[in-house]
Design goal:
Layout: H1 2-7, H2 13-77, H3 80-83, H4 87-97, E1 103-108, E2 114-117, H5 132-141, E3 145-146, E4 150-151, E5 158-165, E6 173-179, H6 180-183, E7 197-201, E8 207-211, E9 234-237, E10 246-252, E11 259-265, H7 271-315, H8 328-379, H9 383-406, E12 412-413, H10 414-422, E13 432-435, E14 440-441, H11 443-462, E15 472-482, E16 485-497, H12 511-523, E17 527-533, E18 536-544
Parallel strand pairs: 13-15
Antiparallel strand pairs: 1-2, 1-6, 3-5, 4-5, 5-6, 7-8, 7-11, 9-10, 10-11, 12-14, 15-16, 16-18, 17-18
Helix pairs in contact: 2-7, 7-8, 8-9, 9-11, 10-11, 11-12
């Protein structure tokens, strides 16, 4: 704890926020300075590596084109038409095969005389090939080679040749020729930075094809100051005298005498201006962070004080209104405190109301229990019978109270009341048919109707339809209309059948009869009809719906 207190002494929230801002800003400043020391070297190394790789990628594209041309020559050299000396058929077949391409085939003898040229119809008089130097070099080396770029005699365009020497006569060599501008379609600066150019250079140092801002035409000599430095297979060239603020990457095309080059400006800011920007920006960052932390601390301090004042007034028992601050979370706390103060006030009011209701309902229950015991005492001939009768009635009353308590005395559905009271007679449950549209009863109606149902079921189990297996009881209720009574009425019917025959009406009215008749009629401000029919008891209660249904 002493170590914690040493690093975190007691201080205001503003002091801590300012310290935190400085602690965050200074390491960032130092880290950026360290990065700047390595930034320039890393940028240059990365740029050189990427430039060399881009030049190599372009060389591979050109190499594929030259290899495809060489493969085509090998296939054509072994064709049956050429072996049999049928140049006309060979011309027709070759022209058809290359019709959709930009390539043309020339067959020459050892003197360089063109025997056929797919640029012209077969039989058209043709002269010698325009590039005798390349032909002689190929005949001497005995391998396929690509020529330097030259002006074609037949096409009049800048072209290049790929030549395959043959030992057979009269065709001493097969040549595939292509216009330099068609090869230029493969030379692209896509993926390079703006301002960069790319070119293919032949063995003599002339441009075969190029693209980009340099705008070099085929046959143009490339800068002779640069070419002698391009000695290895690939690399970069940088010279502020020859290429100021620029970088050049090159790659030798494997197996051929050509090179690919790409070059362009180096987009790199001065490290001095970057340091100047870093120092000014770092100081500004620290100042802004400190000022921002102070402003935030002031706002947070005010917000905390407002929330604390709300909590104090809530503790004194007041209903507090939420304060409006600029901090969303603080507003949520303020709303929660306000709601809590209102809920507490409502809870206190509810508790007072519940206590009042508890006293009122307790008095009613005690009054009902006293009346029940007095009535049972008059009709009981022994203490044991009195105890059994009281226990039985109290059980029915307890069921109603438990049901109301589970619903917080807010009312219970009629069908649930019926089910709960008939659960006391599980052996007879299947003999009772219940029908009627369900609705919610008032708490008083739950108790009073529960008493009546309990008495009816108890009487039926002892003496009526439920006392024998074949007996049946139908308990139903429905709405009725009475022109003399405009209020909505409900009619409940308890009808027994199949029990022991009823020979005569009981001569003495007991407590049960009082409950199902006088008490029920009084509690629901209605009428009760009881008919002891030979086939079983019929009990009909017609009551005002308002005395039963909870609004």
């Amino acid at each position: 704890m002493k170590i914690v207190a040493l690093f975190f002494p007691k201080a205001s929230i503003g002091t801590y926020l300012v310290a935190m801002a400085v602690a965050i800003a200074l390491p960032i400043f130092a880290f950026v300075a360290l990065l700047l020391l390595q930034l320039e070297d890393n940028q240059r190394s990365t740029l050189k590596r990427e430039t060399a790789q881009d030049a190599l990628a372009l060389s591979r594209i050109i190499d594929r084109q030259l290899q495809d041309m060489a493969t085509t020559l090998r296939l054509l050299s072994s064709s049956p038409e050429l072996e049999n000396g049928n140049l006309a058929s060979f011309h027709e077949r070759t022209e058809t095969a290359l019709r959709d391409n930009t390539l043309f085939v020339i067959a020459v003898d050892r003197t360089g005389q063109q025997l056929l040229n797919t640029r012209r119809a077969f039989g058209t008089p043709l002269g010698k090939t325009a590039n005798m130097t390349a032909l002689e070099a190929v005949m001497a080396s005995g391998r396929i080679e690509a020529s330097d770029v030259f002006r074609g005699r037949t096409s009049g365009e800048w072209v290049y040749n790929v030549t395959l020497p043959r030992k057979n006569d009269p065709v001493a060599a097969l040549i595939i020729t292509q216009d330099a501008k068609d090869l230029g379609k493969l030379v692209t600066t896509e993926g390079l930075a703006p301002g960069w150019s790319a070119a293919v250079i032949d063995e003599s140092g002339h441009v075969v094809a190029a693209t980009g801002p340099a705008n070099l035409e085929p046959g143009t000599p490339f800068d002779p100051r640069i070419l002698p430095a391009l000695t290895v297979s690939r690399g970069v060239f940088q010279d502020e005298t020859i290429l100021p603020h620029m970088l050049l990457g090159y790659a030798q095309i494997p197996g051929w005498s050509w090179k690919t080059v790409i070059w362009g400006p180096i987009a790199q800011a001065s490290i001095l201006s970057t340091w100047r920007f870093l120092i000014i920006g770092g100081v500004a960052l620290v100042l802004v962070a400190v000022l921002g932390a102070y402003a935030v601390a002031r706002q947070v301090r005010t917000t905390i004080r407002d929330i604390a004042d709300m909590a104090n007034r809530m503790g004194e028992g007041h209903i507090v209104s939420p304060v409006d601050t600029s901090v969303i979370e603080a507003n949520q706390v303020a709303i929660a405190l306000s709601n809590a103060s209102f809920d507490r006030s409502q809870t206190e009011d509810r508790l007072r109301f519940v206590m009042h209701e508890l006293v009122h309902r307790t008095k009613n229950l005690l009054t009902l229990a006293q009346a029940m015991m007095r009535q049972l005492a008059k009709q009981s001939d022994s203490v044991e019978s009195f105890r059994a009768a009281v226990a039985d009635r109290l059980e029915g009353l307890v069921r109603s109270i438990e049901l109301l308590t589970s619903e917080q005395w807010g009312g219970v559905s009629l069908r649930r009341v019926v089910d709960i009271h008939l659960q006391a007679f599980p052996q007879s449950r299947e003999q009772i048919d219940i029908s009627g549209k369900d609705f919610v009863l008032k708490p008083d109606a739950v108790q009073n109707l529960g008493l009546a149902l309990h008495e009816l079921a108890t009487n039926s189990v002892k003496y009526g339809a439920l006392s024998v297996p074949q007996g049946r009881v139908r308990f139903a209720w429905r709405d009725v209309k009475d022109e003399d009574k405009p209020d909505a009425l409900l009619r409940f019917t308890w009808e027994e059948q199949g029990g022991p025959p009823v020979t005569e009406q009981p001569s003495r009215s007991g407590f049960g009869t009082t409950v199902i008749k006088a008490h029920a009629a009084s509690a629901f401000r209605g009428t009760v009809e009881i008919d002891f029919r030979p086939e079983g008891l019929l009990w009909v209660l017609t009551a005002q719906r308002a005395t039963l249904e909870r609004e």
